[in-house]
Amino acid sequence: MVNFVFQVVQTTIIQLLSLFGIFFVFGFILSKIQTAVLRNYLGSVGWRGLLWTAWLGTPIHEYSHALMAVIFRHKIDQVVLFSPNASTGELGHVNHSYNPRSFYQSLGNFFIGLAPLIIGPVILVVLLYILVSQGREVFSQLAGSESSFSAFIKGIINFLSSLFSWTNLTSYRFWVFLYISFCIASHLAPSRSDQKSMWQGWLVIVVYLFIFNLAARLFSRDISNYIFNFSNFFSGLITVYIYVLVISFIHFLLSFLILLPWRKR
User: Fold this and answer.
1) Backbone dihedral angles phi then psi of residue 97, each to the nearest 5 degrees
2) Which of 107, 116, 183, 195 could anchor a disulfide with 64, C-beta 3.0 to 4.6 Å?
């Protein structure tokens, strides 16, 4: 019996990592970069230095929450797209409520908290295609970069060389794209309140997936193949996330170098 339960737990963990591991890894790395960018501003020009990206990035962040809340049939109580508060550090928020007895709405908490990490990167790719010369070809440089470390490095180098080509550098559309990208990428990571909402939904996912696996095992069935096939949809986001991380890291480097003369001793 103990071995039976252990196998179900093991299967459930593997399925969860297959489905959502990319979001946790990407969210963790992105949050670290955003914290470093925040430190660059706070250590030089102060909290208001964030506003040059927050005025656009925060509304997109909050709108993503609101859109996902509607999809999962939550009641929208209040939407504040942008209202910076220096004392609390809050830039905006979405208040929503739901029926805790509803599996669908309870599950929605996870995706509502995760929403900016799904919608924001998609917007960035669309902007790349629209504003950057040969944007599709630039993005394609990252295709397959997740297959190995050498492929990753080569993909990043090819991407940067294509993105910062002389043709792009002499185009105002490219600089508009770069600025908007900084705005969006700087405000994608889940806030503490977002993470709290995500964990509520995450618990629902874990419990129900464990129950499904338990029932499947009792009837000598295995739903792992269905889970892995569905996870291929999310794995397609890997290239998009690598792109977002590169843009975020460029922002970190530029903010560090440009703000260096104002850095507080």
Assistant:
1) -130, 160
2) 116
Question: What are the Cα distances from residue 7, in Å, to 210, 220, 222, 226?
Answer: 11, 13, 12, 18
With beta carbons less than 8 A apart as the criterion, state whether 141 and 155 touch: yes
What token pair was written down for 219? 């009837």
Residue 77 to residue 100: CA distance in whole angstroms: 16
pTM: 0.84
Rounded Cα distance between 214 and 194, Å, is 30
| Cα separations in angstroms, 84 against 6, 91, 253 | 48, 4, 25
Answer for the pair 15, 209: CB distance below 8 angstroms, yes or no: yes
92 contacts: CB under 8 Å, gap ≥ 6: 58, 59, 61, 62, 80, 81, 82, 83
Ordered DSSP codes for 173-205: HHHHHHHHHHHHHTT-S--HHHHHHHHHHHHHH
pLDDT, tens digit, 9 for 90 and up, residues 177-186: 989 988 998 8
Whole-number Å distance between alpha carbons of 258 and 170? 21
Query: Does residue 1 sit in helix, strand or coil?
Result: coil
Q: Give Dmax (Cα) for the chain.
A: 68
Contact by Cβ (8 Å): 68, 115: yes
* Segments of the chain with pLDDT less than 50: none
